[in-house]
Design brief:
Blueprint (H helix, E strand, L loop, with lengths): L3 E5 L3 H12 L3 E6 L10 E4 L1 H10 L2 H6 L2 E2 L2 E5 L5 E6 H8 L4 E4 H10 L6 E3 L3 E6 L5 E5 L2 E5 L1 E4 L6 H6 L7 E11 L10 E5 L3 E7 L5 E8 L9 H8 L7 H6 L7 E7 L8 E2 L2 E3 L2 H4 L8 H18 L3 H29 L6 H13 L2 H12 L8
Parallel strand pairs: 1-2, 1-12, 2-8, 5-14, 12-19
Antiparallel strand pairs: 3-7, 4-7, 5-6, 9-10, 10-11, 13-16, 13-17, 14-15, 15-16, 18-19
Helix pairs in contact: 1-5, 1-10, 2-10, 10-11
Length: 385
């Protein structure tokens, strides 16, 4: 089965969906409101499920080449003591790959390069998406009207298309946290590939890249809309007593390079990821908190599953029923697990609760911790012809 598809949104999920649809014979146009498709995000970790999805899309090798494996690291307390150690080699033996770290802009570029330039319609705002018949959807972009057999809404957490499909849904809500992140301007002397440090209502972490630079992030329990005139100075103040390399990472960062976003989530699950011939994908369908590092990986799973369902048919409607049945339970379960991980990790602030958690983490066998990770990472993609 083939046809014409319009993908609304040119982020990681939207580009991946376009690649997958083209691989199974569909004609695809990606509509993106930004005039230039260049992701401004900092860095990203990709687990085995995300990498396997990229393999199915034909870009896994290029992504691995541009990534750095996360073999060493773990979770620490602000004074530097280890709560858990990470052994990437164990994960690699279990699922065939370690977790990898890559600049988000690099991943975005590699996905763009897998599509022909004519498939990307940039600088276009989607005005409306309407199913005008049993088999046709109209997408208006200014004076342009695109007719499609399928529309994929990959327009992010604030999805306009989701709002059109589910006007009574409450939409995204603030999780109670805000995140600041950046990539260092220069290489930093790091002893580990990946770290998280948990304090009281705060988290600081880093991902090392293959060129010696690193992405760092700081998650703080703060009201929505909180912003700082000098974010690096504010973080130096808040984390002044925390262990190295946190001060070194901040010292290697330009204040203008810091991105600051409130952490929102789609806390009320959607009743379906498909309405008529319109499918929701990625954050538009299941925006989650970042505490498991699974947001992009789940979007990549969505993209491959959608393409495989459409490849096997027998109709678009049947394929979307299958897509919803396969993706909604898993992605919503991961979103719940991410929320719970935040409550037990970064968001935990009571001193007694923090002490109990830390003790339990130190006493948990590494094998049990690995099994918990594999619960989300060990996913096998469907075959794309």
């Amino acid at each position: 089965m083939d046809g014409r598809a319009v993908v609304v949104g040119g982020g990681i999920g939207g580009l991946a969906a376009a690649i997958g649809l083209r691989r199974v014979g569909w004609e695809v146009t990606v509509v993106e409101r930004a005039s230039t498709l260049a992701d401004a995000g900092a860095g990203i970790s990709l687990a085995a499920n995300g990498l396997r999805a990229l393999d199915a899309l034909g870009v896994g090798g290029a992504v691995r080449q541009a990534s750095r494996g996360q073999y060493t690291g773990g979770t620490r307390t602000p004074d530097g003591r280890w709560l858990t150690r990470m052994d990437g080699a164990v994960l690699e033996r279990a699922v065939g790959t370690p977790i990898v770290g890559i600049p988000r802009a690099t991943l975005h570029r590699l996905l763009r390069e897998a599509l022909p330039a004519e498939a990307l319609l940039t600088g276009s705002h989607v005005g409306s998406v309407r199913q005008t018949g049993p088999r046709t959807v109209h997408v208006t972009c200014g004076d342009t009207v695109l007719d499609a057999d399928l529309v994929v809404a990959a327009d992010g957490i604030g999805s306009k298309v989701r709002g059109l499909l589910f006007p009574a849904h409450p939409g995204p809500v603030h999780s109670g946290s805000t995140v600041l992140r950046a990539i260092t301007e220069r290489a930093v002397d790091l002893r580990t590939d990946f770290e998280l440090t948990w304090g009281h209502g705060a988290e600081f972490g880093h991902i090392a890249f293959h060129d010696g630079r690193a992405e760092w992030h700081a998650v703080l329990d703060l009201p929505a809309g909180t912003r700082f005139a000098d974010p690096v100075a504010e973080l130096r103040r808040r984390f002044r007593t925390w262990h190295e390399p946190i001060p070194a990472l901040l010292d290697a960062t330009r204040p203008t390079a810091v991105l600051h976003h409130d952490v929102d989530e789609l806390r009320t699950p959607l009743p379906s990821y498909a309405v008529g011939r319109i499918a929701l994908l990625g954050d538009a369908a299941h925006a989650m908190t970042p505490h498991l590092g699974q947001g992009a990986c789940q979007a990549l799973e969505d993209a491959v599953t959608l393409a495989a369902a459409l490849a096997s048919g027998p109709t678009v409607d049947a394929a979307l029923v299958r897509y919803d049945a396969e993706r909604r339970p898993r992605s919503q379960a991961v979103a719940r697990a991410a929320r719970q991980a935040g409550r037990m990790g970064q968001r935990l602030s009571h001193p007694l609760a923090v002490a109990v958690r830390n003790t339990m983490m130190r006493l948990t066998p590494s094998s049990a911790a690995t099994r918990m990770i594999l619960r989300h990472h060990d996913w096998t993609p469907p075959h794309l012809r």
